[in-house]
Write a structure and sequence with these properties.
- By secondary structure, this protein is an alpha/beta fold.
- It has 23 helices and eleven strands.
- The strands form three sheets. Strands 3, 6, 7, 8, 9, 10 and 11 form a seven-stranded mixed sheet that branches. The protein has a two-stranded antiparallel sheet with strand order 1-2. A two-stranded antiparallel sheet has the order 4-5.
- α22 links the parallel β9 and β10 (475-481).
- The relative contact order is 0.06.
Length: 505
């Protein structure tokens, strides 16, 4: 390690007279230093250094390496990140687009490309994304979401066009446009978003429009958000909750938004109750969770008229302080070698047996009316059943018997495990229409939390969750087993999706 660090430092020192970015190195020095015989980490450091130079000439050698390093997806991912975040020229982004369209690109590399398109800062590259990139077949969705997240992109006109044009048939582009316009707080955005809400029929797009309306025009959005809270589709109601979260930040609309959120908490059923409670807690600093009487008393303290009627009786499963109001839950059990063998001590451990006991308790706690599934994973994911099942005593017992039969024989691939759970119960895509079957809306991952193997490691897994959640909002709760569990990884995964982490020592 010391030898590698000293070698990189020497190369940077040699190139320092021609540096154009802090910690960067010249393209000539990079090409002289980069050798396939170097270790992966040394090659990664060189890629990062030439990217920090900001020199657009670095695109050419990086393009060559993108093909030469096909055996090392880790290095390919760093090249893609450098092309987007550090260079971001039109030529660099075309290379990233080639990766996205190439079926041979590893999943981790395409995920990095999807993520870092939102980190482009180069005006030339952003202009290309907004014009040619949004027209190129096979890239439109990725480019649209990249622009929606790119903090350096401040021009709402391209996104306004794709939201308002009658010939924009792709609902994914309209969803990205709505999300991006919420970030680009422009006066033109408010009018376009409110107008689109009157005619938009695609449910995922309506969700983003409602969230955007709450942020851009809280006063004009409140009547629409109130009406959307009664929509039969939970994704539309989720959009209304997200819009009300923005209204909480506005003084004039705060009281009405609080009242609507408490009413939603009292009357909705399923996981959206948890979403409303989380928004209320973050917006008020009060930690009342699903306790409706406490929220109503808080409204009374503030002088806000109370919600009308009695709260709906909705049983809530609770385990180890983890409240699960969802009625569509999939439990994901890590049944890998990491759960039966400690890599540090090289001694057997009982994590898997303990995880099975904890999972059995959670299954037993499911209230009637819940639909649930179970997935176990090592290097691959396997399902108890291919569809969600009612939480009857018979199904609970059958699920627990199946869980007991799962054994750890390989290292874990978290992407395979969560991917199997994410798609459980969903029909195969046969059309380009927005998905109607929601499958599960809550996953509960019971794990040691150490992503040791597979294409999707810790950071890539977070990116994967982000992409999967564009059109389906799925909360991931995590339960760590044992003092050796990777609490950081499990906590971040839960927080990213609006879930909670609990550790069972």
């Amino acid at each position: 390690m010391l030898k590698r660090v000293l070698g990189i430092a020497a190369l940077l020192a040699v190139s320092s007279p021609a540096l154009s970015g802090e910690g960067g190195m010249t393209v000539d020095a990079f090409q002289a230093a980069y050798r396939r015989g170097l270790g992966q980490e040394a090659r990664k450091d060189l890629i990062m250094a030439v990217g920090r130079s900001g020199d657009p000439r670095a695109v050419e050698p990086l393009a060559r390496l993108l093909h030469e390093e096909r055996s090392y997806p880790h290095l390919q991912a760093w090249i893609v990140k450098t092309l987007c975040a550090d260079l971001g020229t039109r030529e660099a982004l075309k290379l990233v687009g080639d990766c996205l369209r190439d079926p041979r690109s590893p999943s981790g590399v395409t995920l990095v490309a999807e993520q870092f398109l939102g980190d482009v800062r180069n005006p030339e590259g952003l202009a290309w994304m907004a014009s040619a990139g949004l027209r190129e077949r096979g890239l439109r969705e990725s480019m649209a979401w990249g622009l929606a997240r790119a903090e350096s992109f401040k021009d709402p006109v391209p996104l306004l066009a794709h939201l308002a044009l009658p010939d924009e048939k792709d609902w994914r582009i309209r969803a990205a446009a709505a999300s991006g316009l919420a970030r680009i707080a422009d006066a033109r955005s408010s009018a376009a978003v409110l107008a689109a809400l009157k005619t938009e029929t695609a449910v995922p797009v309506r969700r983003y429009l409602l969230a955007a309306a709450g942020r851009l025009d809280p006063a004009g959005a409140l009547p629409l958000l109130r009406a959307a809270l009664s929509d039969p589709d939970p994704r539309v109601r989720l959009g209304a909750i997200e819009g009300l979260a923005h209204c909480l930040r506005q003084g004039a609309q705060r009281g009405q938004a609080l009242g609507l959120l408490v009413e939603t908490l009292a009357r909705d059923r399923g996981r959206l109750r948890g979403d409303a409670a989380r928004v209320l807690e973050r917006g008020t600093g009060r930690k009342f969770g699903l306790d409706i009487p406490s929220w109503r008393a808080y409204l009374q303290e503030l002088g806000i008229p109370p919600t009308m009627g009695e709260a709906a009786a909705t049983p809530v499963a609770e385990y180890f302080g983890l409240q699960m109001p969802s009625r569509r839950i999939v439990f994901v059990l890590e049944a890998s070698l990491a759960m039966t063998w400690d890599r540090q001590t090289l001694q057997p451990v009982d994590r898997l047996a303990r995880a099975k006991r904890e999972l059995a308790k959670m299954i037993d706690a499911l209230p009637a009316g819940t639909q649930f599934g179970v997935v176990a994973f090592g290097i691959t994911g396997v399902r108890w059943r291919d569809a969600l099942s009612a939480a009857t005593p018979e199904h609970k017992q059958a699920a627990k018997v199946w869980v007991e039969q799962q054994g750890g024989t390989s290292w874990p691939d978290f992407g395979a495990g969560l991917g199997t759970a994410w798609s459980l119960g969903l029909p195969a895509r046969t059309s380009d229409a927005p998905p109607e079957d929601l499958g599960a809306d809550t996953l509960v991952l019971v794990s040691n939390g150490e992503p040791l193997k597979g294409d999707l490691l810790a950071n890539d897994l977070h990116r994967w969750v982000m992409v999967q959640s564009r059109y389906r909002s799925v909360v991931v709760h995590t339960v760590g087993i044992g003092s050796g569990s990777d609490k950081g990884f499990l906590t971040n995964l839960a927080l990213q999706t609006g879930g909670s982490f609990r550790n069972v020592d």
